[in-house]
Amino acid sequence: xxxxxxxxxxxxxxxxxxxxxxxxxxxxxxxxxxxxxxxxxxxxxxxxxxxxxxxxxxxxxxxxxxxxxxxxxxxxxxxxxxxxxxxxxxxxxxxxxxxxxxxxxxxxxxxxxxxxxxxxxxxxxxxxxxxxxxxxxxxxxxxxxxxxxxxxx
Length: 153
Prior knowledge:
single chain; alpha+beta; globular
């Protein structure tokens, strides 16, 4: 896991390859990578749409129930990281890459006020709670973009 930044440091990018993040078998061979775009309002209650969509697509790709639950938590934590403790005008755009037995999601904040101010505490929380559940993750504090991947790397 990537070490947590000091309270006054704001890393430009954080990434990790961590956690067990296993996948299960599927009935039939999934097709090659597909990409799905989803845009939700930058408001906490809409995080549920991202979480439900990610979980449904992960099941479609053959991830185990345990991996799907890990993904749901990671999606929640990514939304919390981006929103901070308030709603924003604008959207969070998700680029969901479906791979055989894996899923990658890039969260791109499109807030009217510009990129979110990702705090060291928020990044540390994400790394501690979601990091061990994911195959990899990446956080770019300059743009506010968060990328997660679960399944075989």
